[in-house]
Each structure stands twice: as structure tokens, then as C-alpha cells.
Amino acid sequence: MVRSFLFLLIISFPLLAGRPQRVVSQSVGTDELLLALAEPGQIAALSHISHEGAFNPVAEEARRFPALRDSDAESVLRFRPDLVLAASYTRPETLALLKRAGVRLVVLDRFDTLEDVYASLRLLGRELGQEGRAEEVITHCQAQVAALAARLKGVKPVRVLGAGLYPFTPGMDTTFQDLCDHAGALNVAAEAGLRGHAPTPSEKLLVWNIDVLVAAGDPNIRARLGELPCYRVLPAFQAGRIVVLPGPLMSSVSHHRIAAYEALARALHPERFR
Length: 274
Prior knowledge:
four-stranded parallel beta sheet, Rossmann fold, globular
């Protein structure tokens, strides 16, 4: 018994000792994943906008930790990290400088689907020595998604368009498509063949038979969309059929996007939530 205990202690100590102890997250997406998986003592700093609720759905939790002064490599390296988490949308020059500095760097590059999120959780779980915690988060997410799918079983998908102030529309292979797939919605831009964030085909929107516009949560978003002719002429806009979701949830590239699934599903299918 004593020999077995000593053996376990010997093999587990290097694993614990090998866990990174000064992890810096350079993006909001990696902030969200890191906060879900790491021990508080492992977190050296979060992204420069981690404390801002307009960008981060877990800003209140993030405020327990230091934030980077900026998103550049110098701001990251001043925290003397033994692991840096970044995303493929991080500026290339920042990634290049971090690699040149020799710090261990993990760059997440797939965000479109919930399965991509699960893969990121498992990857970071291994890097942080928190594999068990990663599986717990995934199991909880799967239960939430299954419960929502059961509630929406048999609904007729509502025809929606992702609307915004920039002249781009989300089609296939986007987080908006993933949102639609889980919320009882049909993305009319994907149906029309748009892939990624494509230039908005303003002249075609009228023939797409759009039931509802879905936009991120700028408090004045309805009025601002009305300033754009491509939306102002749509029957859905004129009838006030606009769902506004919190920006941090709608743009989330982590497991927190599930809250956006639920919010959109409630707005489109209120009868299933009574």
C-alpha cells in the first residue's frame, strides 16, 4: 500500500510541476476558455479588453485578474508567461514576435462550430494539465444543447438574416450559421450560397423572403440599421421583426455561445418556452 502511494506520488508530481503557472491570454475567446479551465493561480493576465462587458460575456469574472495594457507582444511578454494563448485573428506581427521570443504559444484557429469549441477545450485542457475539467465543461455543454434540441424538436425553422452595420453578411461556415443550426433558424444567406462573411448582396435581399433580422446588441442598432437602404426596405424591418442579441454572446467563439442559442431560440419560438 505504501509503495503504491509513493509510486503514484512520484508519477503525479512531475505532471503537476509541469503545468504552466503563468498563462497569458491574448484574445477574448481564449480568455473565456482559460477562465473555464485553469486554476486561478495559473492565470497571469487576460486580454486587454477582458474587463469590458461590451466584449466579454464573463467580464465580471475576468476582473479578478490583471489585463494586458494592449494586445501587442510587448504587453504580453511583460507578464513573463510560460504559456501564451492567442487566436488566428491575432495580428500576424504579434504572433511572429511571440514565436521569436521563444515563449510557448498556442494559437486557436477553428471557431465556427460547437465541435470546434470542444476541440479547443480539449487542447487547452491538455496544455493546462486540466483534462478532467475540460471534459466536465464539455459534458455540461452537451447536456444544455441536448435539452434545447428536445425543446425545439419539430419546429419550423424561421428564415433569418444576420444584419449589421458593416457591408458583410454571414453565410455558411460562420459562427452565425452555428447559432442558426441550434436555435431553430434557417440562415437565408447560407441558403443562397454565401460562404463566410461575404459582401452583402443588397439587391438580392428582397427576394430572400426574410422573416426576421438578427443583430448584435448595440443599444441603437434598430435605428442604425434603418439608416441603411438594404435593410430599411425589407418587410421584416418595416414590421419590426428584429432580434437583438447581446454582442459578446453573438460573437463568442467559446462555449458561452450556447447562451446565444437559447436567447435566439426563445425569441423565434416563444411558444416552446412557456
